TrEMBL record:
<dbReference type="InterPro" id="IPR009057">
    <property type="entry name" value="Homeodomain-like_sf"/>
</dbReference>
<feature type="domain" description="HTH araC/xylS-type">
    <location>
        <begin position="55"/>
        <end position="155"/>
    </location>
</feature>
<dbReference type="InterPro" id="IPR053142">
    <property type="entry name" value="PchR_regulatory_protein"/>
</dbReference>
<protein>
    <submittedName>
        <fullName>Helix-turn-helix domain-containing protein</fullName>
    </submittedName>
</protein>
<dbReference type="InterPro" id="IPR018062">
    <property type="entry name" value="HTH_AraC-typ_CS"/>
</dbReference>
<dbReference type="Pfam" id="PF12833">
    <property type="entry name" value="HTH_18"/>
</dbReference>
<keyword id="KW-0805">Transcription regulation</keyword>
<dbReference type="GO" id="GO:0043565">
    <property type="term" value="F:sequence-specific DNA binding"/>
</dbReference>
<keyword id="KW-0238">DNA-binding</keyword>
<dbReference type="InterPro" id="IPR018060">
    <property type="entry name" value="HTH_AraC"/>
</dbReference>
<keyword id="KW-0804">Transcription</keyword>
<dbReference type="GO" id="GO:0003700">
    <property type="term" value="F:DNA-binding transcription factor activity"/>
</dbReference>
Amino acid sequence: MLLLNAHADMIWRHGAELSPVGAQAARDALVELAKAVVRGAVDHTETQLAPALVRTAKSLADRRLTDPRLSATTLAHALNVSVRTLQRAFAADDESVAAYIRTRRLEEARRDLTNPAGRLTITEIAARWQFADSGHLSRAFRQHYGQTPTEYIRASRISEPPVAEVQVPVR
Protein backbone atom coordinates (compact mmCIF):
# COMPACT_ATOMS: atom_id res chain seq x y z
CA MET A 1 0.00 0.00 0.00
CA LEU A 2 2.93 2.31 0.72
CA LEU A 3 4.19 1.91 -2.84
CA LEU A 4 0.75 2.73 -4.26
CA ASN A 5 0.51 5.87 -2.11
CA ALA A 6 4.02 6.96 -3.06
CA HIS A 7 3.31 6.53 -6.77
CA ALA A 8 -0.04 8.36 -6.55
CA ASP A 9 1.66 11.18 -4.64
CA MET A 10 4.40 11.40 -7.29
CA ILE A 11 1.75 11.68 -10.02
CA TRP A 12 -0.06 14.37 -8.03
CA ARG A 13 3.13 16.41 -7.54
CA HIS A 14 4.70 15.95 -10.98
CA GLY A 15 1.81 15.05 -13.28
CA ALA A 16 1.81 18.41 -15.06
CA GLU A 17 5.51 17.94 -15.92
CA LEU A 18 5.01 14.55 -17.59
CA SER A 19 4.98 14.14 -21.33
CA PRO A 20 1.91 12.39 -22.77
CA VAL A 21 3.87 9.12 -22.92
CA GLY A 22 5.10 9.60 -19.36
CA ALA A 23 1.58 10.36 -18.15
CA GLN A 24 0.30 7.19 -19.82
CA ALA A 25 3.08 5.13 -18.24
CA ALA A 26 2.37 6.66 -14.82
CA ARG A 27 -1.34 5.91 -15.20
CA ASP A 28 -0.67 2.32 -16.31
CA ALA A 29 1.70 1.84 -13.39
CA LEU A 30 -0.86 3.23 -10.94
CA VAL A 31 -3.51 0.84 -12.25
CA GLU A 32 -1.15 -2.12 -11.97
CA LEU A 33 -0.18 -1.13 -8.42
CA ALA A 34 -3.83 -0.81 -7.42
CA LYS A 35 -4.56 -4.28 -8.85
CA ALA A 36 -1.59 -5.72 -6.95
CA VAL A 37 -2.76 -4.13 -3.68
CA VAL A 38 -6.24 -5.59 -4.13
CA ARG A 39 -4.72 -9.03 -4.82
CA GLY A 40 -2.36 -8.59 -1.89
CA ALA A 41 0.57 -9.26 -4.18
CA VAL A 42 2.76 -6.18 -4.09
CA ASP A 43 6.38 -7.22 -4.30
CA HIS A 44 8.71 -4.27 -3.94
CA THR A 45 11.45 -5.95 -5.96
CA GLU A 46 9.35 -7.38 -8.82
CA THR A 47 6.14 -5.45 -9.24
CA GLN A 48 3.47 -6.18 -11.81
CA LEU A 49 4.42 -2.95 -13.54
CA ALA A 50 7.05 -4.42 -15.82
CA PRO A 51 4.72 -5.35 -18.73
CA ALA A 52 3.13 -1.89 -18.84
CA LEU A 53 6.51 -0.20 -18.54
CA VAL A 54 8.04 -2.35 -21.29
CA ARG A 55 5.09 -1.74 -23.64
CA THR A 56 5.32 2.00 -23.11
CA ALA A 57 9.11 2.07 -23.47
CA LYS A 58 8.97 0.03 -26.70
CA SER A 59 6.31 2.30 -28.13
CA LEU A 60 8.38 5.37 -27.31
CA ALA A 61 11.56 3.77 -28.68
CA ASP A 62 9.79 2.85 -31.93
CA ARG A 63 8.87 6.49 -32.45
CA ARG A 64 12.45 7.64 -31.78
CA LEU A 65 14.52 5.05 -33.67
CA THR A 66 16.22 7.67 -35.82
CA ASP A 67 17.22 9.75 -32.77
CA PRO A 68 20.97 9.39 -32.21
CA ARG A 69 20.47 9.95 -28.45
CA LEU A 70 17.99 7.08 -28.05
CA SER A 71 19.16 4.85 -25.18
CA ALA A 72 17.98 3.22 -21.98
CA THR A 73 18.86 6.46 -20.19
CA THR A 74 16.77 8.70 -22.45
CA LEU A 75 13.83 6.30 -22.32
CA ALA A 76 14.01 6.02 -18.53
CA HIS A 77 14.17 9.80 -18.23
CA ALA A 78 11.15 10.25 -20.54
CA LEU A 79 9.20 7.68 -18.52
CA ASN A 80 10.27 9.06 -15.14
CA VAL A 81 11.79 5.80 -13.93
CA SER A 82 15.35 4.85 -13.11
CA VAL A 83 17.49 3.19 -15.75
CA ARG A 84 17.77 0.16 -13.46
CA THR A 85 13.97 -0.11 -13.16
CA LEU A 86 13.64 -0.01 -16.95
CA GLN A 87 16.41 -2.56 -17.42
CA ARG A 88 14.84 -4.86 -14.83
CA ALA A 89 11.46 -4.61 -16.58
CA PHE A 90 13.04 -5.61 -19.93
CA ALA A 91 15.03 -8.38 -18.26
CA ALA A 92 11.75 -10.00 -17.20
CA ASP A 93 11.31 -10.79 -20.93
CA ASP A 94 14.97 -11.89 -21.31
CA GLU A 95 15.76 -8.80 -23.37
CA SER A 96 17.78 -5.66 -22.83
CA VAL A 97 16.76 -2.15 -23.80
CA ALA A 98 19.81 -1.84 -26.05
CA ALA A 99 19.05 -5.17 -27.76
CA TYR A 100 15.47 -4.08 -28.43
CA ILE A 101 16.61 -0.79 -29.97
CA ARG A 102 19.28 -2.52 -32.08
CA THR A 103 16.83 -5.17 -33.32
CA ARG A 104 14.21 -2.58 -34.26
CA ARG A 105 16.80 -0.48 -36.09
CA LEU A 106 17.97 -3.56 -38.00
CA GLU A 107 14.36 -4.37 -38.94
CA GLU A 108 13.88 -0.86 -40.29
CA ALA A 109 17.21 -1.00 -42.15
CA ARG A 110 16.14 -4.32 -43.72
CA ARG A 111 12.88 -2.74 -44.84
CA ASP A 112 14.78 0.19 -46.40
CA LEU A 113 17.09 -2.17 -48.30
CA THR A 114 14.22 -3.42 -50.44
CA ASN A 115 12.00 -0.36 -50.50
CA PRO A 116 11.17 0.11 -54.19
CA ALA A 117 9.95 3.68 -53.61
CA GLY A 118 13.38 5.03 -52.80
CA ARG A 119 16.58 3.08 -53.08
CA LEU A 120 19.03 4.35 -50.49
CA THR A 121 22.65 3.31 -50.36
CA ILE A 122 23.79 1.09 -47.52
CA THR A 123 25.75 4.04 -46.15
CA GLU A 124 22.60 6.23 -46.17
CA ILE A 125 20.59 3.49 -44.48
CA ALA A 126 23.31 3.04 -41.85
CA ALA A 127 23.26 6.77 -41.09
CA ARG A 128 19.46 6.92 -41.00
CA TRP A 129 19.18 4.10 -38.44
CA GLN A 130 22.10 5.28 -36.30
CA PHE A 131 24.79 2.76 -37.18
CA ALA A 132 28.31 4.19 -37.05
CA ASP A 133 28.94 3.41 -40.73
CA SER A 134 28.08 0.90 -43.45
CA GLY A 135 30.58 -1.61 -42.03
CA HIS A 136 28.91 -1.48 -38.62
CA LEU A 137 25.50 -2.02 -40.23
CA SER A 138 26.84 -4.88 -42.36
CA ARG A 139 28.35 -6.69 -39.37
CA ALA A 140 25.22 -6.26 -37.22
CA PHE A 141 22.99 -7.26 -40.16
CA ARG A 142 25.02 -10.41 -40.86
CA GLN A 143 24.99 -11.38 -37.20
CA HIS A 144 21.21 -10.88 -36.97
CA TYR A 145 20.03 -12.14 -40.38
CA GLY A 146 22.86 -14.45 -41.46
CA GLN A 147 23.74 -12.44 -44.56
CA THR A 148 25.12 -9.04 -45.47
CA PRO A 149 22.84 -6.24 -46.64
CA THR A 150 24.15 -6.69 -50.19
CA GLU A 151 23.40 -10.43 -50.11
CA TYR A 152 19.94 -9.65 -48.74
CA ILE A 153 19.25 -7.19 -51.57
CA ARG A 154 20.37 -9.73 -54.20
CA ALA A 155 18.28 -12.51 -52.65
CA SER A 156 15.19 -10.31 -52.46
CA ARG A 157 15.56 -9.32 -56.14
CA ILE A 158 15.78 -12.98 -57.17
CA SER A 159 12.63 -13.82 -55.23
CA GLU A 160 10.62 -10.91 -56.66
CA PRO A 161 8.02 -11.99 -59.17
CA PRO A 162 8.80 -10.79 -62.70
CA VAL A 163 6.92 -7.77 -63.94
CA ALA A 164 4.39 -8.80 -66.56
CA GLU A 165 4.88 -7.20 -69.92
CA VAL A 166 1.92 -5.41 -71.40
CA GLN A 167 1.27 -6.08 -75.06
CA VAL A 168 0.20 -2.97 -76.90
CA PRO A 169 -1.58 -3.73 -80.16
CA VAL A 170 0.05 -2.15 -83.20
CA ARG A 171 -2.31 -0.36 -85.55
